Q: What sequence folds into this?
């Protein structure tokens, strides 16, 4: 026997319709590229998104075709999050920080039919346009007079003119909720980026899961929240801030392209932001700037960090500023896959006990399942101690990659077909908390035991004179691999390698201590802001560890 409820598709257009009807006066606030702050209500945003959808249809964009975007966090980009998928096309968000060859590969691989860009990406478009094979039209997101005359593009339309030519209003089309809505590419640090195709259904479910009261600590009615994603909109869809804020009825604040500490702090304070999402790197920059300038937060109460495990020292600094430093786990392939709130009974914990818990990445969201395996594919228990390869599955988890099927790099014998191998080494606790120990490709195997590069890095960044740190494996004739710690000092710092090792002693097992410490002016980063370990490994290829280790030795 089947149920007798109505069957209505879960579409992204429903989110902006809901916000316009139920939270009509809540605002999208964006700092535009020229520095001025633009405001629109969700009701106004819906009308402009409808006009965009009508305009794209008039330009000939077909259902299922891709519209690529190179742009920063502005009002027009927010409207594209609804106007493009709302009319049945696919929004392809692209990182302007990627290298030219990666941009060309991504755009051609996705077969983008139309392409939108803002004034901050003109030079990138000039460089890549001659190499693109599928783009038949361009949309400039700025005024006509801001587009250089020497930019030779086949057909250029202008964003505001597209909207001005349309009546707006009307109803969004309905179609299968499993239709593609957005494409995001992985960072591609070890090869070509891979395309992850999100459906309408998967995004709506992910956003609904995010709104559960135990996902974000102290979740309050949206009308009391102001949300600001430090994550660019091209990075995992801005962690779906453009979708979650309208659903929860929160004001949404977009920082444009200025991600300096001063600009972020000023906008956050001016708009009374209460909740932020961002990678640990940007938070380290902001917190260090605040320390140097004697600043505090007046409204911010919580932040969610993801993308890399945040150093405990960073979480402690935020906690002491009155901000709950939550950590979430996820990846491009998994949308929001963990609930970050501390579970019941933890409100009375001490500061140190809470910080211990904040080092965990939360618990799985409803309908997402975790699994741990050893190197041979055998199950690893959720005992809070045992480490294993993390696998996930669920309705918000990618089942394959664009044009690569389910199996882009091959599977080991015995792997389960319907699980995604994340590439993370994790510990799962009996209460459901997930603790990311390392990336599979970064873990150091010394004397048959694992050393977590993440834990060593985070411990090193607790030193007041260390700005950033990375740990890589160096071949060792006896122990197989030993850790090399590569650091960048803070401005004016003079700390030595020996002093760093002494600082680490007692924080980690003696045999985890790095055999050597090297310093660079700054560590190389990928286009998404992550430390680029591939480049560090290349820089230290052939490195010979000292005969007498400065740090620890592998276990007997």
A:
């Amino acid at each position: 026997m089947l149920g007798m409820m109505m069957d209505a598709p879960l579409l992204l257009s429903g989110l902006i319709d809901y916000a316009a009807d139920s939270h009509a006066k809540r605002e999208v606030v964006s700092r535009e590229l020229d520095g001025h702050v633009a405001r629109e209500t969700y009701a106004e945003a819906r009308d402009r998104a409808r006009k965009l959808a009508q305009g794209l249809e008039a330009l000939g964009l077909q259902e299922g075709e891709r519209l690529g975007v190179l742009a920063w966090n502005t009002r027009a980009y927010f409207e594209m999050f609804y106007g493009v998928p709302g009319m049945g096309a696919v929004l392809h968000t692209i990182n302007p920080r990627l290298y030219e060859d990666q941009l060309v590969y991504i755009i051609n691989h996705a077969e983008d039919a139309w392409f939108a860009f803002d004034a901050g990406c003109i030079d990138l478009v000039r460089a890549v346009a001659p190499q693109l094979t599928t783009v038949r039209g361009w949309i400039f997101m700025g005024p006509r007079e801001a587009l250089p005359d020497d930019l030779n593009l086949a057909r250029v339309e202008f964003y505001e003119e597209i909207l001005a030519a349309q009546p707006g209003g009307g109803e969004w089309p309905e179609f299968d909720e499993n239709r593609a809505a957005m494409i995001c590419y992985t960072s591609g640090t070890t090869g070509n980026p891979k395309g992850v195709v999100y459906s309408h259904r998967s995004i709506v479910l992910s956003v609904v899961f995010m709104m559960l009261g135990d996902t974000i600590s102290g979740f309050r009615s949206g009308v009391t929240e102001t949300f600001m994603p430090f994550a660019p909109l091209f990075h995992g869809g801005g962690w779906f801030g453009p979708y979650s804020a309208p659903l929860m009825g929160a004001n949404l604040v977009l920082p444009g392209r200025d991600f300096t500490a001063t600009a972020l702090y000023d906008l956050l304070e001016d708009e009374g932001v209460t909740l932020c999402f961002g990678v640990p790197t940007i938070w380290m920059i902001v917190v260090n700037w605040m320390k140097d300038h004697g600043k505090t937060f007046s409204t911010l109460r919580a932040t969610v960090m993801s993308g890399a495990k945040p150093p405990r020292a960073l979480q402690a600094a935020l906690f002491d500023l009155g901000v709950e430093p939550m950590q979430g786990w996820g990846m491009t392939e998994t949308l929001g896959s963990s609930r970050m709130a501390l579970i019941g009974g933890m409100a009375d914990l001490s500061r140190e006990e809470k910080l211990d818990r904040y080092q965990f990445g939360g618990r799985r969201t409803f309908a997402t399942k975790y699994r741990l395996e050893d190197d041979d594919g055998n199950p690893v228990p959720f005992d809070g101690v045992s480490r294993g390869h993390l696998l996930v599955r669920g309705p918000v988890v990618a089942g394959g990659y664009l044009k690569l099927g389910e199996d882009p790099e091959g599977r080991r014998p015995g792997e389960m077909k319907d699980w995604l191998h994340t590439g993370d080494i994790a510990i799962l606790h009996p209460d459901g908390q997930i603790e990311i120990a390392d990336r599979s490709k970064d873990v150091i195997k010394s004397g048959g035991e694992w050393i977590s590069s993440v834990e060593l890095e985070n411990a090193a960044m607790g030193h007041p004179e260390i700005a950033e740190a990375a740990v890589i494996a160096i071949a060792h004739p006896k122990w197989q691999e030993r850790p090399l710690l590569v650091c960048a000092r803070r401005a004016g710092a003079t700390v030595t390698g020996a002093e760093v090792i002494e600082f680490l002693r007692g924080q980690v097992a003696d045999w985890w201590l790095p055999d050597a410490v090297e310093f660079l002016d700054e560590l190389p980063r990928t286009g998404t802001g992550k430390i680029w370990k591939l480049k560090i490994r290349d820089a230290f290829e052939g490195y010979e560890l000292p005969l007498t280790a400065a740090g620890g030795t592998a276990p007997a």
